[in-house]
Amino acid sequence: MASKQGTTAGIPQGSGGETQQRGGEALTTNHGVPISDNQNSLKAGARGPTLLEDFVLREKIFHFDHERIPERIVHARGTGAHGFFECTEVIPDLTRASLFQKAGERVPVFVRFSTVAGSKGSKDTPRDVRGFAVKFYTEEGNWDLVGNNIPVFFIQDAMKFPDLVHAVKPEADRGFPQAASAHDTFWDFISLMPESMHMIMWAMSDRAIPRSLRMMEGFGVHTFRLVNADGEAKMVKFHWRPRLGLQSTLWDEAVKISGAPTPTITAATSMRRSRRAISRNRSWDCRSSTRPSPMPSPMTCWTRPS
Ligand code: HEM
Fold this sequence. Notes:
The chain is an alpha+beta fold. The protein has two domains: 2-65, Irregular (Cytochrome C Oxidase, Chain J), CATH 4.10.91; 78-289, Catalase core domain (Catalase HpII,  Chain A, domain 1, Beta Barrel). 22% of the residues lie in helices and 22% in strands. The chain is built from seven helices and twelve strands. The chain has helices at 17-23, 55-65, 161-168, 184-192, 197-203, 251-259, 265-281, and strands spanning 2-4, 27-28, 34-35, 42-44, 78-86, 106-114, 131-138, 141-148, 218-219, 224-227, 233-242, 284-289. The strands form four sheets. Strands 5-6-7-8 form a four-stranded antiparallel beta sheet. The N and C termini lie far apart (74 Å). The model is unreliable at 1-20, 274-281 and 291-306 (pLDDT under 50). Protoporphyrin IX containing FE binds at residues 72-75, 78, 112, 114, 131-133, 146-148, 153, 155, 158, 161, 220-221.
């Protein structure tokens, strides 16, 4: 016969049963079923095996088993900010999207900045590409525009992406190095992929060690196809320009900051200031350009640890 072992009397301090007795609030399952005990599973007799029909036990263990959200393969480490996009110059010739039709009109946005290679909890200051995932909450629906702070990319064929990411991620057998491209698997990959040479020049420039999230440029990277009210398609590139200008740390600084007690300094300082900067003064301008503008060449200021 099934029986709950040691119900109310056997409940340890603070386990909920007391609350029920003292405050009148019942301990419940996730579905709201009041229960007197979540400490003793249902058994077949006094010393019998645990019974699967104990849905309270199964719910508790199921919940426990799902407490960890699996980490994202890339861009695991991110920081978000709310703000707005204001159209300063209308572009009806390029698009009929509502957010570009009226000068001065504001659209709420949420942006998620991220590093790429580091896992959850990794530092903010690695030499790495930074991702921009911008969500515009427009009256016509949500519009997502992703970008990177580097205008080109390592590969063209998506089939190589898993190999690129496996190469740059920590060595699988030791979880090391974290958030760093300075290891053999990455350079093996690069040495075998001639098409990655352009991006690697950018990645080894000062752009890959930004001083703050407010001091990075952003690029849609892809060429987008916009359609205007006449149904004409226009090919467009998106560039984000920081109002504070492009600023980087020195490699020596980046290494020191990441060894200091608060490796999340880039996000922390940016977030502290972003309430002012993003919501009042706007930190970035977004420009669309249909002209093939020449990209500035990668910065030649190479910095090495002393
Ligand atoms: C072959 C090319 C690419 C492949 C296969 C690829 C694949 C991926 C994958 C699998 C994710 C993670 C999605 C998730 O966990 O939910 C991701 C995230 C991301 N990718 Fe790419 N990617 C590529 C190129 C690019 C390029 C060129 C850019 C820049 C425009 C970019 C920007 C981003 C950003 C910003 C995120 C993070 C989005 C967020 O924070 O929500 N990716 N990508």
